């Protein structure tokens, strides 16, 4: 995935552009946190809930014929939780105070989601390309140096005792 530092920089720029944000995090669609700036909130828990909400939102958009998922906005008594698609492999979730300008929140959230999506998708494409090259490159089996084995003739065994039989009688 894209470097955590690059994603974290984008999250901080988003928080600077929208001062009423109280937190922001980017997570993979598998629920793993890629980067977070969420003081006072458990990022792993928010990421897990984001992926759950994403699943419902994707199904809702599909079932109603609205196309691919773009964003989800939840309004609570104390503020907003907005989730945005961030490329093919990630989502951006932002937390905002109730006095935020919702239009600005949506606009800046979309921009940040697009930028994070570019970072994540570019890294995924580079990884896939590297794997393809590795698969396409002929793999040479290591050559094992073989040494010729020779046999030397053995001398016949000689035993001092002609009848070397052991028996156990009970």
Percent helix, as a range, is 40-55%
As an assembly, this protein is single chain
* N-to-C CA distance: 77 Å
**Major β-sheet annotation:** 5 strands, antiparallel
- Proportion of β residues? 15-25%
Which spans have pLDDT < 50 for at least 5 consecutive residues?
Answer: none
The whole-number mean of residue pLDDT values reads 85
Helix-and-strand structural type: alpha+beta
Number of helices: 3
Widest sheet: strand ordering: 2-1-5-4-3
Q: Which radius of gyration do the C-alpha atoms yield?
A: 32 Å
Shape: elongated
Total number of strands: 5
Return the string of H and E elements. Answer: HEEHEEEH
Please give a structural write-up.
The mean pLDDT is 85. It is elongated and about 105 Å long. The protein has three helices and five strands, in the order H-E-E-H-E-E-E-H. 41% of the residues lie in helices and 21% in strands. A hairpin with a 3-residue loop joins strand 4 and strand 5. With 170 residues, it is an alpha+beta fold. The protein has a five-stranded antiparallel beta sheet with strand order 2-1-5-4-3.
